[in-house]
Structure formats: structure tokens, C-alpha cells
Amino acid sequence: MVPFSFNMAVHLLALDIDGTLLNSRSELTERNRTAIALARSRGVEVLLVTGRRFASARILLRELALDLPLVSHNGALTKEVETLATLDFHPLEEEVAREVIDLGREAAADMICCDDPHGLGTMVIEGISSANRVLQGYLSRYRDAVVEVEDLRAYLDHAPIQMMFSGSCRSMDQLSDRLQTTLGGRAQIFQTRYRAHDLTILDVLGATASKGQTLAAYAERRGIPREEVMAVGDNHNDLSMLRYAGYGVLMGIADAELTRIEGLFQTASNDEDGVAVAIEKWMGE
User: pLDDT digits over 131-179, tens only?
Assistant: First the structure.
């Protein structure tokens, strides 16, 4: 891990949301809000790059009054917040999505098909086990976006945004291995692990979808070299953008295996305003 002391020009700041910008109570602290405002006052573009669904992350972007597009679904979908215009979309191929459903059924895993890329988004399910209380609670919070069908495979006559699973860390590791072996390079597979809660969210996206690839494409369109990009994240699904950025900053709550990766900086945890700490260090505050 690189000591967190540097001088550089930053013109693009890419921020993950959960475990990074928000604390463990899913709150945006005043210190983080102020730090983002200061960065913007110095001409820095602030881009939210999240594994969340578009509609869920859109609320926070509006709260921060950010005027950039929103990168959601781990880079699979980038949209304008107000017009809902789709700017960048990397769908999961229809046939690959069907294979994912078959593998999920074999593993008896709870799964969601994230769909409707050109609207606010839907979560299509064919039933969730009562034992998966975390996922049940999540779906109940976003009930308006849930569509229940008898057969997900029959529902899919098009390429969706992604497939998503959640469960214990061990079961999701096993499913991830099976998906990797079967699908190879036809899909991107990302894990967001919360070991303290024995919970992993497993996302299966199109072959060209990732936070890093979408961040790189955005920076290129804006004429910003990677050396002037800072990215901040906390989990495995953030790794591609942390590696792309000239300055990849890892939150203090990250898994030990991530902290051993060379070339990354480390900041405080999300309960210690790690995003603000990183911004303040860059600004020399």
C-alpha cells in the first residue's frame, strides 16, 4: 500500500457510494459533503460510479446537486439524471443471461434480473427464499421497482442490464467460480463482500462492463488523462477503476486482500469520513 502523501493535479474524482461516500448507517456526512463542494469549487468533476441501480443512486446524486451523468450497475449503465437519456450501455447478452439463470437455479440461489435500461429500472424476480432476509428487506424498500414473473427464462426475450445474486460469502464464492468456469470471457463477474455480515452480492454483467472501463471512456471523452483521475472505493467491484485511475484510493474498511495490492493509496474508513480525508490530503488542507 502506498503512503497517502502526494501532490498532483486532479480534474476528475470518481466516487463509489456504499462503503465509501456513505457511512455504515448509509448517511452522507457533512464533512464529506463539504469536501466534495470544495473539490468542485476547484474545477474538479465529481462522478458517482456505483454498483447500485440507477434509480437508487439517483437520489444521492440529486442531493449533492451534481450535474454529471450517473454511472450505475458497476459501469453497465450510464444515464443523464434528469432526462433519463442513456449515454453508455453494456448489456448482458440474452443467451448468456439465460445460462446465468440456469446456473443460478442449479445452485438454488436467489436471483434478480435488472432490466429497463432506458427508464428508471426494474428488478425482475421469480421468487426469493424466505431465509434470505437481507434480500427480502432490500426488495421491500424498492417494491415499486419489483416485477415478479413465473419464469425468468421465459421472460427474457432481450438483453437485460445484468443478473444479480446475493447470499453467504461461501455460497456466492462457489457460484462465482462456477459462473467463471462456464461463461469465461462472455461476462464480467463482480463481488461486493461484507464479511462481517457473511453477505456477498454477486453481479453478472456484459463482457465489456466494468467501473474501470466506463470511467476510462468518460475521462477520454472529457479529455482528462488518467494521471489526473482520482478514484475512491472500498470493495472488489471497485478494483478496475482504482487500477485505472492515476490515484486509486482504497477505504480503510477494505478486505485485507485488497490492501495488499501494490500501487493503491489508503484512506480512513467510511465511518471516519475517508472520502473527505482523501480530498483534504490532495488539497493540502
Answer: 888 888 889 999 999 999 999 999 999 999 999 998 889 999 999 999 9
Burial class (CB in 10 A: 0-12, 13-18, 19+), 16: buried
Look up residue 47 and give its amino acid.
Answer: L
Torsion angle defined by CA atoms of residues 153, 134, 24 and 251, in that order, rounded to the nearest 10 degrees: -40
Query: In this predicted model, what pLDDT tens digit does every residue of 188-221 receive, in sequence order?
Result: 999 888 877 888 899 999 999 999 999 999 999 9
CB 124 within 8 A of CB 113: yes
C-alpha cell at 127: 421468487
Contacts (Cβ under 8 Å, ≥6 apart) of 283: 38, 39, 42
The C-alpha atoms of residue 93 and residue 158 are separated, in whole angstroms, by 8
The tens digit of pLDDT for each residue in 75-120 reads: 999 999 999 999 999 999 999 999 999 999 999 999 999 999 999 9
19 conformational bin, left if phi > 0, alpha if psi -120 to 50, beta if neither: left
Residue 6 confidence (pLDDT) = 47
Residue type, 115: D
| Cα-based distances in Å from 203 to 1, 47, 70, 88, 111 | 27, 21, 18, 18, 10
Residue whose C-alpha cell is 471497485: 238
Three-class SS state of 142: coil
Q: Give the count of alpha carbons within 13 A of 142, CB side only.
A: 23
Q: Return the closest-CA partner of residue 98 out of 185, 186, 181.
A: 186
Tell me the CA end-to-end span of the chain in Å, nearest whole number: 22
From residue 117, alpha-carbon distances to 9, 78, 149, 153, 161 in Å are: 35, 9, 18, 18, 6
